[in-house]
TrEMBL record:
Its cofactor is pyruvate. The keyword Repressor does not apply. The lineage of its organism: Bacteria, Pseudomonadati, Bacteroidota, Flavobacteriia, Flavobacteriales. Belongs to the PanD family. The gene is panD. The active site is at S25, Y58. Is synthesized initially as an inactive proenzyme, which is activated by self-cleavage at a specific serine bond to produce a beta-subunit with a hydroxyl group at its C-terminus and an alpha-subunit with a pyruvoyl group at its N-terminus. It catalyses: L-aspartate + H(+) = beta-alanine + CO2. It is found in: Cytoplasm. This is Aspartate 1-decarboxylase. CDD domains: Asp_decarbox (cd06919).
Length: 116
């Protein structure tokens, strides 16, 4: 049997942009993606602490050391610039592996979204 567990989390970043006319996805500072082990195109769950919205999309890298967190396409309607977000990825693995697996947890500076 396999179960789905948290693979990584970027905790409490501010939304820096919402681009309704972009094709879709979430743009994430590539430094944050690397720190969390998130790859281009990976499914990401976004939890909006300000309004309770939860949605899923895929990650695309943004400029390094920019702090960019931009929701694109229809997802842009679910956030406002400045909203506090939690970004989560998941992975499937055997139960025994899941028992010892350690997810990557990233806690950026809440004012800048940059790694501390």
């Amino acid at each position: 049997m396999q179960i789905e567990v948290v693979k990584s989390k970027i905790h409490r970043v501010q939304c820096t942009g919402a681009d309704l006319n972009y094709i879709g996805s979430i743009t994430i500072d590539e430094d944050l993606m690397d720190a969390a082990g998130i790859i281009r195109g990976e499914k990401v769950q976004i939890v909006n602490n300000n309004n309770g919205e939860r949605l899923e999309t895929y990650a695309i890298p943004g400029p390094r050391n920019s702090g960019e967190i931009t929701l694109n396409g229809a997802a842009a309607r679910k956030v406002a610039v400045g909203d506090v977000l939690i970004l989560i990825t998941y992975a499937w693995m055997p139960v025994e592996e899941a028992k010892v697996f350690q997810p990557r947890l990233v806690f950026p500076d809440e004012a800048t979204n940059l790694l501390k």
